[in-house]
Amino acid sequence: MGLIGLELWWFLLSKPKSQKAVAASQGIQEVTITVDGGYEPSRIVVEALKPVRLLFDRRDPSSCLEQVLIPDFHIAVDLPLNQVTAVEFTPKQVGNYVFTCGMNMFHGEIRAEALNT
Ligand SMILES: [Cu+2]
Questions:
Q1: How far is the CA of 59 from the centre of ligand 1 (A)?
Q2: Ligand 1 centre from 41 Cα, in Å?
Q3: Which residue among 50, 68, 71, 96 is buried most deeply as judged by most CB within 10 Å?
């Protein structure tokens, strides 16, 4: 009984939350991602065919998280500690795109959805 309760608690806590990007100036969709022991949020929803700006706010000093990669957009950037680093790209197709730390240990996902027209 205790073990089941613990597993349920872990499941609820570890369930990834997705966050929708917010429209900023010039039609750019913006999301701030806190980099601290991983990525928060780690699941981001954007609209395809519109520019996206991810603002990585790195607070974790471990070298593991000093770089972020988004292979589908050929992005590999260094994240200076205690700074916000902007990463911009435009998803040309609907789909899921991953981002990871430089060592591929922490993961996040960008979901590009079709425009609601
Ligand atoms: Cu890493």
A1: 14
A2: 17
A3: 68
